[in-house]
User: What shape does this take?
Amino acid sequence: MTVLFDGIASGMLLFLISVGLSVTLGLMNFVNLAHGAFAMVGGYVCVTLLNRLGVPFLLSLPLAALATAAVGVLLERVLYRRLYGATHLDQVLFSISLVFMSMAAASYFFGANQQPLQLPEFLRGQFKLPGLDMGVYRLFLIVVSGLIAWGLQALVSGTRFGAQLRASVDNPRAARGVGIHVERIFTLTFALGTALAGLGGAMGVEMLGLDPGFPVKYVVYFLIVVAVGGSGSITGSLVASLILGVVDVAGKYYVPEIGSFLIYAVMVVTLVFRPQGLFGRKATR
Assistant: This one.
């Protein structure tokens, strides 16, 4: 039960970081491999606010998300917008370049070492139940990520903004013709995706660690979530993250010799039988 609980917590953190990539890749059709760099920005903003400015942890989380969203909006307006119509290869090369630039910048300003983070007293320790030890911080992660998943699904599928976003992606020209400001919708969507990445990066410092190699170290995990869950599906990202989190933690606990092999096996099996992912739409010819 403890392994299952830790796997769910790991999966929810993975969802929180990777769902922004699902939004930008699936809903905006942009291959943004620099998504992990935005998560790293959120992590560094969080530890800077905590360690250097003494900002309380719970306040540093939304500030990290807002700071990352601001960086995302700036880059979207200056750089990303120019490549919305480019080929996926161009988008990959561009975003990979941003990854290595961000890693060099993080190494220059913060050094190559892991960044320390001290959780507040009320988020430390464990709840001990029969057969289950629940870490307080992991329970906090599950609750916050679950609320965000619910809110994000409601935003995309049940609001005017979500309808405008889907229309802007499916047919930008027609969307402009009915009065939708497509560029503004894309900017807000990109800001939302990067804010979620920044929040996930800030909340993940305690579990994942934080150093300049963060974007390269975890980008494969984010891509696996999108591939297994289905590009653009919030529900798919959540289910895939939970499956991968539980499988990864259980595999490392029970068969540590094979490391992360099991999550790659899950991805391969899923894509063999469901190339579009668990909740992805089938391609039409």
